[in-house]
Amino acid sequence: MKNLGIFCLLLACIGFQSCKKDQSQKEIKAEKALAEKVISTECYKALYEQDTIELKVNTLKNGKITGDMVMKLLDMPKKVGKITGEFHGDTLFVDYSFIQGANNKKIFKNPMALLKRKDTLVLGSGKIETYLGRSYFNKDTPIDFDRVKYKFTSVDCVEK
Q1: Is 126:138 a contact under the CB 8 Å cutoff?
Q2: How far apart are CA 144 and CA 146, in angstroms?
Q3: φ and ψ at 77, to 5 degrees?
Q4: CA dist., res. 47 & res. 37, Å (int)
Q5: DSSP letters along 76-134, please?
Q6: How many CB atoms lie within 10 A of CB 63?
C-alpha cells in the first residue's frame, strides 16, 4: 500500500515535469521567433565594367544578418543565393550560399567580407582556405578592402 502511494506520487511528478518542459520549449520557440524578426532592410548595388551585383541586407533583432544576393558577371552563369552572417565592428562577415546558372542541384558556399564605410559596402578580397569542406578566410592574411572591384552603393529596395 505504501509502495503504491509512492509510485503514484512519482508518476504525478513525472507528469508535471513533462508539462513544464513543454512550456519551456514553447517559450524558447517564441524567443527565437522574436529574435529572427527583421528590424531593418537595406539594398545595395555594385557595378564594375559589365558586372552587376545586387544585395539585400536584413538586420534581425538579435543582430544577425540575412539577405539575398544576385551576381551577374560577364561570361559567367548568373549566381543567385542567400547570405547569413553578422557584423564584427564595421566589417560584415557572411556566408554566401548560391546556385549557379541552371544547375539548381548543386549549392555552392563562399565566405565574404564587406566593410561598411558610411552608406557603402566594400567587398574585400582575401586568401580563402578550405578545411573539412568548409571555406573561410585565412586568419594570418589580412583582407584587402583597398584594391577591390566591387563597391556597393545604397539603392532603393524594389520588390520583384
Answers
A1: yes
A2: 6
A3: -65, 150
A4: 30
A5: S--EEEEEEEEEETTEEEEEEEEEETTEEEEEEEEEEEEEEETTEEEE-B--EEEETTE
A6: 10
**Residues forming a β-bridge with 44:** 55, 154
Q: How many C-beta neighbours within 10 Å does residue 44 have? A: 23
Residue 52, C-beta contacts closer than 8 angstroms, at least 6 positions apart:
45, 46, 71, 72
Q: What is the pLDDT of residues 59-117, one digit of tens each?
A: 998 889 999 999 999 999 999 999 999 999 999 999 999 999 887 788 889 999 999 98
- Tell which residue, 62, 49, 42, has the closest CA to residue 114: 42
Residue 115's closest CA among 95, 135, 144, 136?
Answer: 144
Identify the three-state secondary structure at position 50: coil
Torsion, Cα of 78, 68, 119, 40 (10° steps):
160
3-class SS of residue 150:
coil
Taking the model in full, what pTM does it have?
0.73
Cβ-based neighbour number of residue 22 at 10 Å: 9
- For 98-108, write each residue's pLDDT tens digit: 999 887 788 88
